[in-house]
Write a structure and sequence with these properties.
Pdz3 Domain, 20 helices, 2-enoyl-CoA Hydratase, Chain A, domain 1, 6-stranded antiparallel beta sheet, alpha+beta, 42% helix
Length: 691
């Protein structure tokens, strides 16, 4: 096989007319991994074990299909997959595919039996929800019991949710028809049975391409968590997303633990605006309007996503499991994303004494219109906002990158350059050769006054590049959660059809490969990978005790460092120790921040609970206690701060003429008026000015 320039030429040396499409994909992907991946792996027994563990988890994460004997049979291949991958053998793949299909089809008898008779919701028994704490069933008796408890748990949680909905509705109206627990239990079973019958039909129709995607992505994920093979259907969805046309809830989703995990939310989308959905939330059930919920456990991703998508102005109800383990239902109205909310926007903040006017710029992502060279760029927009804020006579500036998942690398470089003269911003390294330094070439400093950059755990990629550059130059103070996300790698998407010989046109389309090809390094030589950016001033965070971020991803690339770039720090040295001391003193005596620390302990404790009692009364008591405690902390965050927030004078006429823009601005002001983290950012600006 040859890698000629940028074209992969697949010859007939290994290929015969009767061979399958999977062999061509195997060859193409293997070459890309070997020649293009940032950190190619030695395909040995260690690699084989990685692939085996990833693949088995993806086939049967919850240990509800395979028996112990099946696992033992497949384990015979644990150290052979490297050899089979290199020899293009499909032996293990075909055997595992046949076996999981057989077990999946056998499950119809289990769910049919248990969902056609009432569950005893008064019986005291427990169910373990963490698959890592369970073993594969020994025989049919054990697997039946595993299914019984899993189904009972699903029915019980549905009943509990519907009891809560019924209670809330009856409190608002005396005409609500109250259903008994027995009626709700019967409805829950029927709804779940319908869901599983639909799932069963999909399983029977599942083709080998679907199975192959799981297998080949297990191979790719052994290299790193961000490289992925996209079958043709997924590639089509990717292209639609990149086109900027969004209609639905505006969230990027991927399968995890049998459900859909929220990977990102498009700024301005219904999910983003709701403030009730967060990255890493798991979507468990989906309902259209007032219709019954559909459980999406183990549902094919494209089918689950299809349930969530829909025409604008229609409602979708999502049952989500939060990071702390709590389960909530949220209602979203699908919409075409209002693009204005995804662009940079600014306000003026005044402290309680009215002595300091702080400019505030919110940047939800580092955007750039790649289809139109004259299209909007975040660096241009931020420069314009700075110009308007300077005209307002601000004393300091806050750049808010909280929940900014990244975006355009060139734009991150240009935007950093707005705050210091020209110089290096970030280093990028491929697997071979010296690092390439990306410089800001504009010698103009658009803003040179007191600067605070706000970050949190969800600030990632380009956000980390910007924050790191500001920190390394000593240009401003980074304020936020204990760290940012820690993603310091670059991926490139390649259409495989363009790289495979035309003689294989009969099996195209092949899909696309997103491959990690580069790594970011700060100008001080350290990578942002795994560790992210540690703020100069750390504020308490409700998720600070949780294990989140890039470091929790399986087989993430390592942290390392290279030689620093040559750069000239900002001439005015910031008194970071003094600023940190003043902030720590304020935070230590603040009741709200104290509550946030307590909330972090609560979230950690709740997230560690994996065993649930299957007695409905006991479950409801636990759920009520958990809900009441959570609401206590939610109420805490709704208290107004001392900040006075208003639009820029130059924006007033535009807001008055555009009702949609005016509504967006007003909602933003209302949210920020309750933001104690932002209030502390303003206090840091005041401390910088005092010197």
């Amino acid at each position: 096989m040859l890698l000629a320039g940028t074209i992969i030429v697949l010859t007939s040396a290994f290929f015969v007319p009767d061979s399958k499409k999977e062999l061509v994909l195997n060859e193409a992907i293997s070459q890309f991994l070997s020649f293009r991946h940032y950190q190619p792996l030695k395909e040995d027994d260690s690699f084989s074990e990685r692939v085996f563990n990833l693949y088995i988890d993806r086939l049967d994460l919850n240990k509800r299909y395979f028996l112990q004997s099946d696992f033992i049979e497949l384990s015979a291949y644990k150290l052979k997959l490297d050899d089979q991958w290199k020899s293009r053998s499909l032996e293990f793949f075909l055997k595992s595919s046949e076996l999981i299909q057989k077990r999946l089809l056998e499950t119809k008898a289990y769910y049919t039996e248990f969902l056609t008779a009432p569950f005893d919701l008064k019986k005291n028994e427990t169910f373990e929800t963490d698959p890592e704490k369970t073993k594969y069933p020994k025989d049919n008796t054990e697997i039946r019991e595993s299914w019984r408890k899993a189904l009972k748990f699903q029915v019980m949680t549905r009943v509990a949710g519907n009891l809560q909905i019924q209670s809330d509705a009856s409190g608002k109206s005396d005409t609500v028809k109250i259903k008994s627990t027995e009626q709700l239990e019967a409805e829950a079973r029927k709804g779940l049975l319908d869901n599983y019958n639909d799932w069963y039909d999909r399983i029977r129709k599942m083709d080998e391409d679907d199975r192959w995607s799981i297998y080949v992505n297990s191979v790719i994920s052994a290299y790193d968590p961000h490289s992925v093979y996209m079958p043709p259907r997924d590639k089509e969805r990717f292209d639609i997303a990149m086109s900027g046309k969004y209609e639905g809830i505006g969230a990027t989703l991927r399968q995890k633990d049998g459900y859909l995990m929220v990977v990102d939310m498009f700024p301005g989308s219904p999910s983003w605006r709701s403030k009730k959905m967060e990255v890493n939330d798991l979507i468990m059930r989906v309902a259209q309007g007032d219709q019954p919920s559909v459980d999406i456990l183990d549902m094919k991703q494209e089918n689950a996503v299809a349930l969530i998508k829909g025409p604008k102005n229609t409602k979708v109800r999502l049952t989500i499991r939060k990071r702390d383990g709590s389960v909530n239902e949220i209602v979203l109205t699908r919409a075409v994303v209002i693009m204005e909310e995804s662009y940079a926007s600014s306000l003026v903040l005044t402290d309680a004494g009215g002595n300091v006017r702080t400019g505030y710029i919110f940047l939800p992502q580092f955007y750039q219109d790649f289809q139109d060279r004259n299209g909007r760029k975040c660096s241009d927009d931020v420069a314009k906002e700075i110009e308007k804020l300077n005209a307002e006579g601000i004393d300091g500036l806050i750049i808010d990158l909280r929940n900014n998942g990244g975006g355009s690398l060139p734009e991150a470089v240009k935007m950093a350059g707005l705050f210091f003269p020209k110089g290096p911003v970030v280093q990028i390294k491929t697997k071979e050769g010296s690092p390439v330094i990306l410089d800001d070439t504009d010698s103009k400093t658009q803003y040179g006054g007191p600067l605070v950059v706000m970050t949190n755990y969800s600030s990632a990629s380009a956000s980390e590049i910007f924050a790191a550059a500001i920190q390394d130059y000593g240009r401003g103070i980074i304020v936020g959660s204990p760290s940012t996300w820690g993603k310091g790698t670059v991926q490139r998407v390649t259409d495989l059809d363009e790289f495979v010989n035309d003689k294989f046109n009969d099996i195209k389309p092949l899909g696309a490969l997103s491959l990690t090809i580069q790594k970011f390094y700060r100008i001080n030589g350290k990578t942002t990978q795994l560790k992210g950016v540690t703020p100069d001033i750390v504020l308490p965070d409700s998720y600070q005790q949780m294990d989140i971020g890039e470091k929790e991803e399986k087989y993430a690339l390592n942290w390392d460092e290279i030689a620093p770039a040559k750069y000239t720090p900002w001439p005015e040295t910031l008194p970071k120790d003094r600023l940190k001391s003043l902030c720590d003193k304020r935070v230590a005596g603040d009741d709200q921040f104290s509550m946030i620390r307590q909330n972090a302990t609560r979230i950690k404790k709740d997230s560690e609970k994996t065993i649930f009692n299957l007695n409905l009364d006991t479950y409801l008591k636990e759920l009520k206690a958990q809900s009441q405690e959570a609401k206590k902390y939610e109420q805490m965050m709704k208290a107004a701060t001392s900040l006075k927030i208003k639009s820029l004078e130059s924006d007033l006429a535009l807001n008055k003429a555009d009702t949609a823009r005016s509504e967006i601005t007003q909602r933003m002001i209302e949210d920020l008026s309750k933001d104690i983290f932002l209030e502390e950012g303003v206090m840091v600006i005041k401390d910088i000015i005092k010197k």
